[in-house]
Amino acid sequence: MPTDHVEVKLDFSNAFNSLHQHDTLRAVHDRLPQLYAYCSSAYSQSSLLFHGPLTVLSQEGPQQGDQLGPVLFASTVQPRLCSLQSELNLGYLDDLTPGGTVESVASNEAQIARIGSDMGLLLNTSKFELIGAKERLIGGESAAAVIH
What SS3 class is residue 98? Predict the structure, then answer.
């Protein structure tokens, strides 16, 4: 890796339970129309979750145990992440790793935070891991604050 390049490992907090369902339904409608009828029946209304005597409304994210959950999450997030400008953009579900020049990575981190926030997702700064040619920093501040 060139000395002026870095990578930052990013993670969204409680991502599957926080993703806005209306964003997921829109993504399925646009990208996976053959699944829309199923997803609309499962996610267009709040569902009831029971825990002993308690009843809780589930209003965000794929339902626990839904085997389509990872597909729904990825199909919602992936198109927005394609707009990132770093030389390297890796992602697996709620874990993202942009890499490139310090400036492009810092800019992409801010963009990821904005994109995530629009969908109900927040970056977990305690899990940030900054990797550079000479050093490795873990957790705490945003990568943009550390590398500037």
Answer: strand
Give the pLDDT score at 134.
Answer: 58
At 143 the pLDDT is 53
Q: CA angle, 67 as apex, 61 and 73 as ends, to 5°?
A: 40
Helices 69-81 + 21-31 axis angle, to 10: 80
The total number of structural domains that make up the chain: 1
Q: Which 3 state secondary structure label does DSSP give 63? A: coil
- The confidence score (pLDDT) of residue 120 equals 93
Q: Domain range spanning residue 49?
A: 5-147
pLDDT band at 114; cut points 50, 70, 90: very high
Dist. CA 57–CA 61, nearest whole Å? 12
First-to-last alpha carbon distance for the chain, in angstroms, is: 19
Task: Read off the CATH number of the domain in which 30 is found.
Answer: 3.30.70
The confidence score (pLDDT) of residue 148 equals: 46
Q: What backbone torsions phi and psi does residue 52 show, to the nearest 5 degrees? A: 60, -130
